[in-house]
Amino acid sequence: MVIKCYIRQMALMCLVAVAALAQEVQLSIQANPASVDLGQRFQLTVTVAGSMNNVPEPNIKGLEPFNIIGSSQSSQISIVNGRISSTKNVNYTIVAGQKGSFTLGPAVITLGDKTVSSNTVTVTVGQGGGGAGKAKPSPPAGQPPAQQAPAPPPPTQQSRPGVCSSTSDGGVFIRGATDKKSVYLGQQVTYTFGFFSRVRMTENPEYSEPKFSGFWKEDIDREANVSNRSVNGALYRVQELRYALFPTVSGKAKISSATLAFAVRNVWDFFDRGRRVELETGNVEIEIKPLPEAGKPSGFSGAVGRYKISASLDKQKLNVGDALTLNVVVEGSGNVRTIDEPSLTGLENFDVYESSSDVNVGFAGSTVQGRKTFKFVIVPRKDGEYDWPGIEFSFFDPERKKYSTVSTGNLKFSVFPSEKQETVTYRTGAESVVSVGEDINYIKEDSGRALSGSPEPLSGRPWFWLLHLLPFGAVGVVILLRRHRGRLMSDRGYARYRGADRKASAVLKKADKAARGNDYADAYASLNSALTHYIGDRLNAEVLGMTAEEIDSLLDDRAVPEQVRRELRELMEHFSLVRFALGAGADSGAYREYRGRVRKLLDRLGRKL
Closest by alpha carbon to 236, among 171, 151, 192, 157? Predict the structure, then answer.
């Protein structure tokens, strides 16, 4: 009986304490100015004051029509006779994006089973001529209704197609989403990873991107895009990364989960030391439709998107045997990296030599755009006036759901007979008679003595036969060079293998140039590109769409030692981290360290692959 009475007393004391605490906490908001023009900025200030050391984060209503472009905060904590009191001010910089009269607030916080709400303010947005003034707050709401609770969790994949979210509580969640649920083979689909937080991180996050198996991947963002966004009335700090994906196989495709691990702390609690949080988005499924057979052109090579083609010659007049350079440019929106070399027809009177290509990729918003340039060297064997019909290029347009064919148009040029002709000149003249003193020289009878001092025959000297073998050696070298050039043209894997070191050195120089300009995001992205492209070139594999785990598995199949693969994983994880938190490597000393590690790893991979 005594125990029951004691429990009742303790419960009553707790209820009284919570009620007293709720009465001591004061919550208010203020807008300055209260009348603004369209596109003009104003400040919204939230003030929480009271005798407490853990100030919860308020939930502000009515922010959806506005764009929050920045925030700042200040706090004061005082301890007098063991009594703790604190004041927290958060200032939001807001841009008015719609005309009208809007009510902001109330701001709501929860203390136990009680809620405290602030006043509301009215902000008027006009087309022009809005003056500055103080907001006219409405009376405090007093005791708010029970349903005024903090914002609910964000929508999950059950309520939004193409979206998978994970949440640890109402203040932190991550989301993986695609802009389309059904696409054609080769059509771009954009995957966006978002990290939403209303709490402060105490360390850099550890991000692991999804496995994009069955997709060719292009990174749209080299580092995370940061913004502020209102979700269900709550303000979140959002970090997003976008990926452009191009499916390579038809059927059901699955993008695996993205994960993020980090430490957080409550920005309203001065004494909160933070906690460890690990989140996972979940898988996203996409339907990949095969390209239609109806209307497919005979020259279609798999290009999907929207393109145009052009061609030009470096000269319009030349002689037989002279070299002519043909430049062919394919540009537009789509996966330009995978566009095949166009076929040249109608050049029976020409020798066509090896071509080279150059790719330039960019982004229009989240759409991949670019151009791919092919260069051909052609040599005419016959003179004449030529009107070449040019090149046709076919592609599938997923927006129009049909095939299209574009052409370069005719190219006209003139070939003249060669001016280099071999001639033989014969010269005749009168003979002159020279007296030598005697008309007849007799044969010497003692020939042995006369020939005793004659030199050794040339055929007996070693260099004589070496000179005879020299033409055969030169022919052998020419044959080997022709075979090498022919293999470079016909065997793409061999060409990639032989050019891997040269390409890696060029990318490292690009990284050094970016680092000298303090563009460390681009520098680290180039270091990562040097590693992945080198492995792909040495193994003749497309690794751009692979994750670090898939590349590690590929190297494991080639018996690359675990120590080398572990170094590769550490470097790729660091480069992924820098994209989210550039401060982890934004100095010359850190860059030189990782640049040296990449160079050493490339040398070790070159000896193993």
Answer: 171
